[in-house]
Specification:
By secondary structure, the chain is α+β, with helices and mostly antiparallel strands. Helix content is 43%, strand content 24%. A ten-stranded antiparallel barrel has the order 1-2-3-4-5-6-7-8-9-10. β7 and β8 form a beta hairpin.
Length: 430
């Protein structure tokens, strides 16, 4: 039986619709299941599945021999599904449509508790761990099949899957869902793999191999959105790689910046995000035009820096009065080579800024224990701007953000304020 890459090669070199159809038969169930867990809508999941294989048809020639196709399709399904959610939330003009997914009853089954959290936890795994889980549970391959796909021994594949499962279990525990190892294994084995609806494979093949004029406008929108997000993630990786090269040639990460608050001064730059790294707790307040009153919630932030401090990931979890998580967000910020621009990826639930912003303030004064950074960037739809400012003083961190939007009805402002203190267990930095 030809492997995935051989079928892909037959499609690329000879335009074999039979080879492409076989790929759809093999993987459409996994892709449909991944989409369904994100969007929670059967018809939307089917449309996303079609979009994913249209993207595969367009990108097939660029995939390399070592690509794990199942993992690539899973990630693409997630990109397209999240972009679909983002567009839907923008149309509905609210951010909390899926907050109820984080609610779990003590009497619910293990799968009922972990299913709403699975895609987020999977996204945080490394590529190799995620590929192993996709192959073993979402596509129900044997250990030997997983080993063959990722190019390792069966024993090594078992170890990787075991480590990946433990990482998932820890991720669920951080969200308040404690799952025994054997229960997690049983739940994934029984529920994670799904069969594609009857007739979907044939529909997918027809859509993927059709000309754009023969494809519905909503499907084309999904495809374009997915390709845009994939291109953005690729560009983000390139920015990070460029920063590493620059650092290797240029020396230390943290270079004290001359404090300057004058708008007329030379272009400002930020050396790194390391002063923000760690665990933080405090309050989150949201206020703005059109909101009758300000809302305030407890917030917990985990901020991780990578690439020698040039990039940071901010995980923000909001909790209710009982300390139970009710919503989570993830934001990523990456400095360009000179540190004068900050490339931001908003959480899909917010999705206002996705691109570059200009550094507008930078202070690093170790003697006073003060670090400040700020940027201003346009919204992805060019319909407004975001201004964000981080201030670290001792064990306090203050984050303020203003989103200014414009519409035919006029301009509006949304303000988000975080006032945080470092968790007792965390180490102090500057």
């Amino acid at each position: 039986m030809p492997d995935d890459f051989e079928l892909l090669r037959q499609y690329v070199e000879r335009g074999s619709s039979e080879a492409f159809g076989e790929l759809v038969e093999r993987h459409s169930g996994m892709v449909h299941g991944a989409a369904l867990r994100v969007v929670r809508d059967e018809s939307r999941a089917e449309e996303i599945t079609q979009a994913v294989f249209i993207i595969l048809a367009r990108k097939a020639a660029s995939l390399r021999r070592r690509t794990i196709l199942a993992g690539w399709l899973y990630r693409t399904a997630r990109f397209v599904a999240l972009e679909a959610l983002r567009a839907e939330r923008r149309r509905q003009q609210h951010l909390n449509t899926f907050a109820q997914l984080n609610d779990s009853s003590p009497t619910a089954s293990v799968w009922d508790q972990i299913a709403p959290l699975l895609e987020e936890a999977m996204n945080r795994l490394g590529a190799a761990d995620r590929d192993a889980i996709v192959l073993r549970f979402l596509e129900q391959k044997s250990f030997a099949g997983v080993a063959s796909a990722i190019g390792t021994s069966e024993a090594a594949a078992k170890m990787r899957i075991g480590r990946a499962l433990e990482k998932l279990r820890n991720a669920f525990a951080r969200r308040g869902v404690a799952v025994p190892a054997m229960a997690l294994l049983a739940a994934l084995s029984a529920h994670s793999a799904t069969a594609a609806p009857a007739g979907l494979s044939a529909t997918v093949v027809t859509s993927a191999l059709a000309q754009d004029a023969a494809v519905s406008s909503s499907l084309i929108t999904l495809v374009k959105g997915g390709l845009k997000i994939m291109a953005w993630n690729k560009m983000k990786s390139s920015v990070v790689a460029g920063a590493i090269v620059l650092l290797a040639a240029g020396g230390a990460v943290v270079v004290p910046q001359q404090a300057s608050r004058s708008a007329s001064a030379r272009a400002m730059s930020v050396a790194g995000f390391e002063p923000m790294a760690g665990e933080w707790q405090g309050t989150y307040e949201l206020r703005g035009d059109g909101l009758p009153t300000a809302t305030r919630q407890t917030a917990v932030l985990t901020i991780r820096t990578t690439e020698q401090g040039r990039s940071c990931e901010i995980d923000m979890r909001l909790t209710d009065s009982a300390g139970q998580p009710i919503q989570s967000y993830r934001f990523t910020h990456t400095l360009d080579g000179a540190g004068r621009r900050i490339v931001t990826v908003d959480d899909p639930q917010v999705a206002r800024v996705t691109g570059e912003g200009v550094v507008t303030e930078s202070i690093n004064d170790p003697a006073r224990g003060e670090w400040v950074a700020a940027f201003r960037g346009p919204h992805s739809n060019q319909g407004g701007v975001t201004e964000c400012r981080w201030v670290r003083r001792g064990d306090e961190l203050i984050i303020t953000r203003r989103d200014q939007t414009t519409s035919p009805q006029g301009a509006g402002n949304l303000y988000s304020d975080l006032k945080l203190r470092r968790s007792a267990a965390a180490k102090a930095t500057p």
